[in-house]
Amino acid sequence: MLISRFIFFSANRRLARAPNLLQRFGPSKRIQSCGYVKSAKNNYKKPTSHPVMNVETQSSRSWSAYVIPAALLGFGGLVAFLHYNDERRAIKKGQGNNRGYGAVAAPIIGGPFTLVNTENQIVNEQDFLGNWVLLYFGYTSSPDIGPDQAQMMAEAIDTLESKENLKVLPVFVTIDPQRDTPAQLRAYLKEFDPRIVGLTGPVSAVRQMAQEYRVFFRKVEEEGDDYLVESSHNMYLLDPKMKVVRFFGLEYNAEELSKEILKELKKHQPKAE
Amino acid sequence: MMLEAYAAGKRDEIHTDVLLKARQACYKARDAFYSCLEMQSDKKPTEIGSVGLLYPTECKRSRDEYVMNCRASWVKHFDRQYCKTKRTQRLLDDRETRRGIMELFGSVV
């Protein structure tokens, strides 16, 4: 049964091949035939060429007569539309919004998070509602930037509290949760300021929070247990409703930081009242 | 829940080599090594540090101090930063005297 099917199949294949061979000779025949047809057509065309061409040119002229004005109208319409759009979008002189660099306008950065603090207690964002929060994502094994930023945070908080009597809660979230245990964070942050709240947790929780706050971090120079974490260094200022109001990059020092935070707080005071 | 397990089960070990005292010792050793490099900049660099940093044998002792006081990843980080600043300094200073790009990129220090 199988054998007969195989033979039938191969026979079919051979038959299919045969017409291919025929077709190879085909094109040459077809060319000739085309030649015949063409010449025949030409012959047919010549005696009646003039009327045919007249009709064709007449029809082509009327058609082209419509094309050019239509194109011009379309172009004019496009220009008018663009002009109207420009007028609509233009901001009149002197009316631009002066929000300054660093203000977060439309994208809502931030979100709920659940992490563990240095006392091994579970903390989520509800616990910070009602406080102004200065949030920093760092790690304890940072060679130079981490300590500098933490120091700056501590100094700014200190200045604000002593001079302006404004309480801002500093929060340090670690982007290296595998090495930064709560005990490690506690020992590290204690040296800067006892008020800094340290947050860590399982890797997935930290990653989720970093994603919500649009923080990039990545392990580099990995040699077993010894690695550095490359990250987008930003300090976020959150208002009492846990909304990101402002972010500060590396270029700020402690004084500028406290001045800017003061500005933001003053801006929000009248709204609160 | 995962968080409770995390809060309960984490070991209590602390990496003391990133705390304040260790950091300050590391910075001091690092600065001593780099100043040695500056002072001996006319000597031929023969020893190889990390990430392509070359230094003369006179600075070997400060190099060992430096490596002992800092983590390996920190050593690499600082060396890389040093080379980068050195390179940009050279680009800015000796534009007239230096000939050819290969000299700048051949040796790092």
From TrEMBL, chain A:
Q: Name one GO biological process term.
A: mitochondrial respiratory chain complex IV assembly
Q: List the keywords (alphabetical).
A: Membrane, Transmembrane, Transmembrane helix
Q: Which residues cross the membrane?
A: 63-84
Q: Which GO terms describe its cellular component?
A: mitochondrion
InterPro entries from the UniProt entry: SCO1/SenC, Thioredoxin-like_sf
* Source domain of life: Eukaryota
- Family assignment? Belongs to the SCO1/2 family.
- For this entry, the protein name equals Protein SCO1 homolog 2, mitochondrial
TrEMBL record, chain B:
Which Gene Ontology CC terms are recorded? Answer: mitochondrion
- Would you say which domain of life the source belongs to? Eukaryota
Has UniProt tagged this entry with the keyword Mitochondrion? yes
Presence of keyword Coiled coil: no
Principal subcellular localisation of the protein: mitochondrion
Where in or outside the cell it occurs: the entry states: Mitochondrion
Q: Which UniProt keywords apply?
A: Disulfide bond, Mitochondrion
Q: Which Gene3D superfamilies does this one have?
A: Cytochrome c oxidase, subunit VIb
Q: What is this protein called?
A: Cytochrome c oxidase assembly factor 6 homolog isoform X2
Which species does this protein come from? Durio zibethinus (Durian)
What would be the name of the gene that encodes this protein? LOC111299355
